[in-house]
Amino acid sequence: MMAQLELITGGARSGKSAFAEQRFTAAEAICYIATGVMLAPDQEMALRIERHQARRSANWQTEERYLDVALFIQQHHFAGYLLDDVTMLTTNLFYHLVAQQGQVQPAAYDDYIEQMTNPQIKEIEQQILTQWHDIVNAVRTTKQRLLAVTNEVGLGVVPATRQARLLRDIYGDVNQYLAQAADQVYFVISGLPQQIK
């Protein structure tokens, strides 16, 4: 039986996205959910997006979004979804929720995050985990297939700033949740995928 939910994790430039793309055939009607939505001009990010786009099959549909992903899955039906990537969706969602909670503009994010209380942090963490729960539930209830690509975090040094540590911890919690929920999990190291679940 084909796995309905797969998580593919690995470090930066480990080959995880290319491996995920190879899990589908070029002929399949796949929806590529690209979560690296550029909210501001960024040449490095634009180059990354171009590289990813060049590898995709012409038969695949690209959906650029990080909000309402569960609703999108509920309202559409594809042979499969490739969500790339979990970390970027979580990052964009984090800043979106910070803006809502603090009623702040991007220029004030850093200051607001530095003074956030533990209950405020917990509220945002819970909202993010709820979003991921809703995505998994949408996949299960519609009986569709989702491959989610994520970055393995926490293998390096402890981040220097509070903001980076908060995000690292949230990424770790999201990854653990998705790994538990997934039917299969792969860890990609230097282009070599290892099935760990």
Automatic annotation (TrEMBL):
<feature type="active site" description="GMP-histidine intermediate">
    <location>
        <position position="52"/>
    </location>
</feature>
<dbReference type="InterPro" id="IPR003203">
    <property type="entry name" value="CobU/CobP"/>
</dbReference>
<feature type="binding site">
    <location>
        <begin position="10"/>
        <end position="17"/>
    </location>
    <ligand>
        <name>GTP</name>
    </ligand>
</feature>
<keyword id="KW-0169">Cobalamin biosynthesis</keyword>
<comment type="pathway">
    <text>Cofactor biosynthesis; adenosylcobalamin biosynthesis; adenosylcobalamin from cob(II)yrinate a,c-diamide: step 6/7.</text>
</comment>
<keyword id="KW-0067">ATP-binding</keyword>
<keyword id="KW-0418">Kinase</keyword>
<dbReference type="Pfam" id="PF02283">
    <property type="entry name" value="CobU"/>
</dbReference>
<keyword id="KW-0808">Transferase</keyword>
<dbReference type="GO" id="GO:0008820">
    <property type="term" value="F:cobinamide phosphate guanylyltransferase activity"/>
</dbReference>
<dbReference type="GO" id="GO:0043752">
    <property type="term" value="F:adenosylcobinamide kinase activity"/>
</dbReference>
<dbReference type="GO" id="GO:0005524">
    <property type="term" value="F:ATP binding"/>
</dbReference>
<dbReference type="GO" id="GO:0005525">
    <property type="term" value="F:GTP binding"/>
</dbReference>
<keyword id="KW-0547">Nucleotide-binding</keyword>
<comment type="similarity">
    <text>Belongs to the CobU/CobP family.</text>
</comment>
<comment type="pathway">
    <text>Cofactor biosynthesis; adenosylcobalamin biosynthesis; adenosylcobalamin from cob(II)yrinate a,c-diamide: step 5/7.</text>
</comment>
<dbReference type="GO" id="GO:0009236">
    <property type="term" value="P:cobalamin biosynthetic process"/>
</dbReference>
<feature type="binding site">
    <location>
        <position position="84"/>
    </location>
    <ligand>
        <name>GTP</name>
    </ligand>
</feature>
<comment type="function">
    <text>Catalyzes ATP-dependent phosphorylation of adenosylcobinamide and addition of GMP to adenosylcobinamide phosphate.</text>
</comment>
<feature type="binding site">
    <location>
        <position position="64"/>
    </location>
    <ligand>
        <name>GTP</name>
    </ligand>
</feature>
<keyword id="KW-0342">GTP-binding</keyword>
<protein>
    <recommendedName>
        <fullName>Adenosylcobinamide kinase</fullName>
        <ecNumber>2.7.1.156</ecNumber>
        <ecNumber>2.7.7.62</ecNumber>
    </recommendedName>
</protein>
<dbReference type="InterPro" id="IPR027417">
    <property type="entry name" value="P-loop_NTPase"/>
</dbReference>
<feature type="binding site">
    <location>
        <begin position="34"/>
        <end position="36"/>
    </location>
    <ligand>
        <name>GTP</name>
    </ligand>
</feature>
